[in-house]
Fold:
Amino acid sequence: MSQPSPSNRPVQLRLRVTAAAENAIRAGHPWVFSDSLREQNRPGALGELAVIYDKRDRFLAIGQFDPDSPLRVRVLHTGKPVKIDAPWWQAHLAAAVARRRSLFDEQTTGYRIINGENDGWPGLVLDRYSDTLVMKLYTAAWLPRLADLVTLLKESLAPGCLILRLSRNIQELAQSAFQVADGQTLHGEPPAAPVVFLENGLRFEADVVRGQKTGFFLDQRENRHLVSTLAAGTEMLNAFSFSGGFALYAARGGATSVTDLDISTHALDSAKRNFALNADHPAVAACGHQTEQGDTFAWLDQTSRRFDLMVLDPPSMARREIERATAIRAYARLASLGLARLRKNGMLVAASCSAHVSAEEFFEAVRGAVRQSQRRFVEWRTTAHPPDHPANFPEAHYLKCIYIRVEE
Structure:
């Protein structure tokens, strides 16, 4: 990416941080908060590269500076000093691409290329849906580099289309100061309809312009596949179904019937379209597909239906640390409601995407609900992030899933 010429290059932005922050950076943590700063040689601009030195005046790290955020620096590089120039960015992108090279074949054309801090691109996510790339920014620090990012992605990945998605907290600034908007097409023709891509040979649509995340929940790919291996001969419920991914996999795996349950009619309509996209698959065509619109907690509490296989995959129940205890209780209640609708030898698949709830807290909430039901159970397995969604620091670990078979 471009750098200022020597004649107008500002004095390097130099920072020093607390001893605790130094230790965290050396341990690989990618965030430096404003209250960790001890010294700053001058005011810094949005997106400017800030160099952090340790107490002995040795290079510690370099990252992107945001003067208006409590998360003041997002670290790009630690170790020995490097020059952050166009070749560095090209190599940085190539490294992320290389990590995925052996993970997917032509049967999967939807996956994550850059997973933010975990790939060394803090606050930036890049997903592929066939020949469409979707870049989502979670920090305004990338906005001054947006033109260079577009050039880099076009030259390195040659997408047919590149879509920009923005987290809500930066949309107003992006529009007013940089004249870009959430859902804007940065390269290619704006998509006239949802983009269709492949996942393990199944066709799905992704609303890359207005949909949640970047248009689809790519992070549940491995769990969807596992559910398909458990589905033969079952009646399956997919609660908080979104666009029906778990149900479609179960149908291909041989389920006799699947029910998508979601509070959003828009999500259920998408699920119907995804089933239609795969109607040529014999197992999908043979499986009965139903949709139910409603609140999952209330529906499970009121229905008399029973299922052999149940997926409970709610949206985050703890978006802030203060909500953690309430979320844990909600997960336990949800599991209890689901267990009451599960037949003998049925499989409960419970997932959480709440980063503020640890894996062990979530798993124990579900296990506790099963124990309280006094039903004998076998824990089949637990899972975490798929390989294209690496998690390399504590706050990055959000996804967890537990499989429990109830035997009586």
